[in-house]
């Protein structure tokens, strides 16, 4: 299993998970043209994407979904609430989850959805299991619940939102109502919240930490790193930050490191999209 970002942040999100035999795109907050441009940069032909999973209906996650799946006849999986709130566009192959919490078996990949507190209709996030590895995603989440903590406790790779620094948000350009929405229990994780979550996590098995959905207006990579460093210097050295304007390098699990046989290890990103 390997994974990468096509872009991460409030202006558009899309994540690729590739098991070798099966390719999953999570969300598409980019126009069709921009998505195709970014896919080309990570070396993925759009026709090779097998399915698209949606976390929730906010524009930075669904803006380009309908145009992409119509053009390339891709299966879409999402919750009924997310699909309705996204305007229920007519697409060729819609598959509705029974709700956040359903687990799918997709051609050798186990995809577990789980609910998150976020100001959307029926939002969820995902954990992917394949080849003995477990990759967890957590972005667009107002607070970490005990259920989330438990659900993500056994991952060997974690994509985690460090959305804002609370002081930067208070001093920043956003109106008070938007500040309250972002910092509220159904908004986004602050650096401190994400750091506290990591601190409580049994992250000894965590070989790869990805910093995602970082606010350009209300955060800075140095502040994120300071937060992670306060939890563990080892984790801070491992952490990779996903950017808004460019795809990330691929992250791949080294072969022979399945968790059933001992702690996982990840190789360094195998290629750079430039
Ligand atoms: Zn978002
Ligand atoms: Zn959102």
TrEMBL record:
Spell out the protein name for this chain. Metallo-beta-lactamase domain-containing protein
Q: What is the lineage of its organism?
A: Bacteria, Pseudomonadati, Pseudomonadota, Gammaproteobacteria, Chromatiales
Q: Which Pfam families match?
A: Lactamase_B_2
**Which SUPFAM superfamilies does the entry link to?**
Metallo-hydrolase/oxidoreductase
Q: Show where the Metallo-beta-lactamase domain sits.
A: 11-186
Recorded hits in InterPro entries, A to Z, give: Metallo-B-lactamas, RibonucZ/Hydroxyglut_hydro, WalJ/YycJ-like
């Amino acid at each position: 299993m390997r994974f990468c970002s096509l872009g991460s942040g409030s202006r558009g999100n899309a994540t690729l998970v590739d098991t070798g035999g099966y390719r999953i795109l999570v969300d598409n907050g980019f126009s069709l043209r921009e998505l195709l441009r970014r896919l080309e940069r990570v070396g993925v032909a759009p026709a090779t994407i097998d399915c698209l999973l949606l976390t929730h209906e906010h524009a930075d996650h669904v803006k380009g979904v309908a145009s992409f799946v119509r053009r390339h006849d891709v299966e879409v999986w999402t919750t009924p609430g997310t699909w309705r709130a996204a305007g229920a566009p007519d697409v060729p192959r819609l598959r509705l989850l029974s709700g956040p919490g359903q687990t799918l078996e997709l051609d050798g990949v186990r995809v577990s959805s789980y609910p998150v507190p976020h100001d959307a209709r029926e939002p969820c996030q995902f954990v992917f299991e394949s080849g003995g590895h477990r990759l967890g995603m957590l972005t667009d989440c107002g607070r970490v619940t005990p259920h989330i903590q438990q659900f993500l406790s056994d991952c060997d790779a974690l994509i985690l939102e460090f959305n804002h620094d609370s002081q930067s948000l208070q001093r920043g350009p956003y109106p008070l109502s938007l500040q309250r929405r972002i910092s509220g229990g159904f908004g986004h994780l602050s650096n401190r919240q994400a750091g506290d979550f990591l601190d409580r996590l049994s992250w000894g098995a965590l070989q790869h930490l990805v910093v995602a959905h970082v606010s350009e207006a209300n955060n800075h990579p140095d502040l994120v790193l300071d937060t992670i460093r306060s939890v563990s210097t080892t984790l801070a050295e491992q952490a990779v930050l996903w950017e808004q304007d460019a795809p990330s390098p691929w992250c791949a699990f080294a072969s022979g490191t399945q968790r059933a046989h001992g702690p996982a290890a990840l190789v360094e990103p195998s290629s750079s999209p430039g």
